[in-house]
Amino acid sequence: MTDYLALSHQVAALCRKTAQFILHEAKTFDPSKIENKGLHDMVSYVDQEAERRLVAGLREILPAAGFITEEGTAGPAAERQEFTWIIDPLDGTTNFIHGLPVFSVSVALLHGPDLVAGVVHEANRDESFRAAKGHGACCNEQPIRVTGAPKLANSLIATGFPYSKFAQLDAYLKVLGSFMQRTHGLRRLGSAAADLAYVAAGRFDGYFEFNINSYDVAAGLLLVTEAGGRVTQFLEDGDPLFGREVVASNGLLHEEMQEVIREFWG
């Protein structure tokens, strides 16, 4: 039987080492060395090399596992295996390229359909957020817990902005406007992995985003649930991992957040 807690420690060490590589490259990074994968969707050699290092290290930790990766360095995504790593080597690439110090390494493990281990390493603060199924969540080995804010009126909410596929932009802007009026404020860090880790750590009370990928949120979803929070799609439980939209909260705010979204979201 796989020891997910011990495995999460190994993954955390690998993520920290990868984050150190990213920070080293940030000192001399040349923004002209970027490639465009799509509209406003950029990648650098740093993303690609960080992913190669993660894939190599994770293959040593669990050789039989498959991979879902952002940059495809492990080859084409295989059919779902018993174990599957979900990797974002540099969540917050746009921040990294522009020298904004908010970006993360995110690694999660699926066992069948279940998230069982997850690590988000926020590089610039050297904060390692770690969770294993049934063992809670921690930051730099200190236990973390979601907030007890009972209402949106007591909350600080995080979100992300779409950078492509703007068909739902009008509805999204209306949702933003409603949250602005009902909360202490909205924040957009530019790293979904960090947003979710901060919900788990009680720095944000909730988070929502659409057009999001599994590798952006996988580790963070486990962090939030293991820290006592709740994660769903926008209007129902659904599948926040592969469903392309996420609402995460301390649990107390969840239905109120969904009500705000439901008012404008078809």
TrEMBL record:
Positions of transmembrane segments: none
Alphabetically ordered keywords of this record: Hydrolase, Magnesium, Metal-binding
Cofactor requirements of the protein: Mg(2+)
CDD domains, alphabetized: IMPase
Gene Ontology terms for molecular function: inositol monophosphate phosphatase activity
Enzyme class label: hydrolase
Aminoacyl-tRNA synthetase among keywords: no
Domain of life: Bacteria
Pfam families, sorted: Inositol_P (PF00459)
Reaction it catalyzes: a myo-inositol phosphate + H2O = myo-inositol + phosphate
EC number: 3.1.3.25
SUPFAM superfamilies the UniProt entry points to: Carbohydrate phosphatase (SSF56655)
Record-stated family: Belongs to the inositol monophosphatase superfamily.
Entry protein name: Inositol-1-monophosphatase
